[in-house]
Amino acid sequence: MEIYGLGIIAFCMFAGTFIGNLLGELLGVKGDVGGVGIAMLFLVLISNYLEAKGKPFPEKTAKGIEFVSSLYIPIVVAMSSIQNVVAAFSGGAVAFLAGGLATIGSMLLIPLISKIGTTQESKK
Amino acid sequence: MVANIITKLFTSYGLVGAIGIVALIMFIAYSIADAIGQKRMGSAFAIIIGLILAYIAGKYTGGEKGLSDIKLFAGLGLLGGGMLRDYAIISTAYGVKLENLKKAGLVGVISLLVGVAFSFVVGAIVAVALGFKNPVDITTIGAGAVTFIVGPVTGSALGASSEVIALSIAAGVVKSVLTMIITPIIAPVIGLNNPTAAMVYGGLLGTTSGVAGGLAATDPKLVPYGAMTATFYTGLGTLLVPSVGFLIIRAIFG
Predict the structure, then answer these.
(1) pLDDT digit string (tens) for B183-202?
(2) Cross-chain Cβ contact B98/A116 below 8 Å
(3) Which residues touch B158 (CB under 8 Å, ≥6 apart)?
(4) What keywords are assigned to this protein (chain A) (predicted)?
(5) Domain-by-domain residue ranges, chain A?
(6) Do A43 and A59 contact (CB within 8 A), yes or no?
(7) Chain A closest CA to B1's CA: distance in Å?
């Protein structure tokens, strides 16, 4: 059933954010430390483990998960519509410079790191 | 009388109303993207429309929560709130294969780590250069330069203000849109014409919509290679930035 897929994500979310919050307490950081990332890792590990055992999620369960993941962009759109953009615009240069410089810099790093890849290949 | 009934519908069916509104925004955004022949930019346009509406609503209500401060659109606060956002983000990890991680190999891992660290550091430096002093704010803006997901996830985990979270989303949106626009132009210069470079590109840029859009405009055959590494980027960012990233920033500026 599709609801199983939704439930599996819910389980991963609770397990991941539980560990994230535990980590937060242990590190003395307020709130959740990487809980969403840990939850994603759980989902990857669970689905890969089941596939390796030759028992992947039933089609309908997978559909449930895919349904939620198809809502990710619309949810991000809803999220953008409830932000305090007026306040953000008073510091608009930060967003433009941070995003812009990160993008252009990352692109210029591509040839450098590709080179590591090709020398590694030729060594083989 | 009619206005009363409509108001009542929107307030008692808040979440359903929000779903309808977002569907309408997405429809308009994808129509615009389609009209200018940039189908891949649909999601970026939709996010920009969302931000514009939030701006207009903020000016109109003087509130801090964009459209959701208008009673009719309060449901957007639930649909776009932290609970459903994190739930949807986690679900995107489905389909990521462990063996794909291995296949992308060392160079993919290096590009992912360098990519997250580089964007975070650049974003943090910009934040400090423009006068931000609070470690939470610096980390959140740095996280926004990673992607527009890592920014708000980090910001809400660390308890950043809505203004700073909006800034971090804006930084991520700038990155996503710029990636789509610049990639086809810069591709010949940076040697983005083979699978290895495409994997490195996905790992360094990481913005899934930007990478998919940019590669599709450059060479559609490269899309799966870039998307493969890019899938891991936001997850890695949400794992590392609020934890290791914040601890480093707090050690320097705390």
Answers:
(1) 888 988 998 988 888 889 98
(2) no
(3) A29, A30, A31, B136, B139, B140, B242, B246
(4) Membrane, Transmembrane, Transmembrane helix
(5) 2-83, 84-116
(6) no
(7) 29
